[in-house]
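Reopening: HTH_48 domain-containing protein still failing for me.
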Amino acid sequence: MATSSNTPVQLTREQVGLLLFHEFRSGSSARQAADRINLLMGPGNVNKTTAARWFQKFRRGEVDFKDSPRGAHPKAVDENELLALVEKNPRQSSSFLASKLGHSQGIINRALHNLGFSWKQSIWVPHVLSDLQLVIRVDMAAFFLSYRKTTTWLSNLVTGDEELTLYVNYHRGGQLLRSGNDVPTSKGHAKKVLLSFWWNVEGPIHWELLPSNTTVTEDLYCKQLTTLAQKIEGKMEKVYFLHDNARPHVSKVAHHKIQELGWKYLVQPQYSPDMGPTDYHLFRSVSQFLDGKEFQNEDHLKTELQSFFDRMPRDFYRKGIEQLPTRWQYIFDNDGAYYVN
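Support: Ran it again with your exact input. Result attached.
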């Protein structure tokens, strides 16, 4: 087909696959490949999600350029095989099951959901994401990856979150259970407090314990931000502030407060603890530290938490934040699937 060099070309699926395979072999990322093909052949030929899907196929060794229809997958999950694996060992993670069955983790999560399974009492549980939520995660990962030319800005990142912390921490494992088959709850002391924590690559900046019945309102959150700003003052020339999309965090009042402080405002998508260092790194380590421990009162708990934060090396905090680009790239390349480790 002869065309002028400036005439846009509408590519077939097979042609798109061939061009993407060339880009894949050349070492391009899915995002770079989509941008380059659209620049050369005309806009709209390849979107970034489609490119990420093809790259995922190539990584699995699938070089079939007759692409399956949009929304379809190379092969369906054998639910009988999946069910047999789960019944044999319900403590297997969805990431392990995905690697064993040769599917993406997102596909396995959906299959488990369809079979009526959910993960009970694990250290962290992926939410079964809708197609829209997957797209939003891909878009946000692409945004963060292209936010600056280098990742040096992460040295100026401040992030934080809240988590309920128990006085008595029973040691219990997690497993996959069908809906309605709940794990019996332990009888005992249910007293807890709310841990609010903010940090950067250098370590903790500010943290506090609030009564468990405390509601973090937009006004309380703004007061906490004021305290945080006082502790940062004179130590950081620029602040990139990352938090989740909980209502008090993204309210107009909180947004205005962050602008007033002169900070760059960044929000992770809904149901995305794998994109929040406080969730996937810091609180996860705190939970492991508290596992099996019992505290008589708040002062006892606070002393132990302070001891934990103090004895963690600075590299612990830096590594937690510097994992972000790897996670963003994985989420972008895998159609928004959770990054689980």
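The radius of gyration is 23 Å. If you still see a failure, please send the error message rather than a screenshot.
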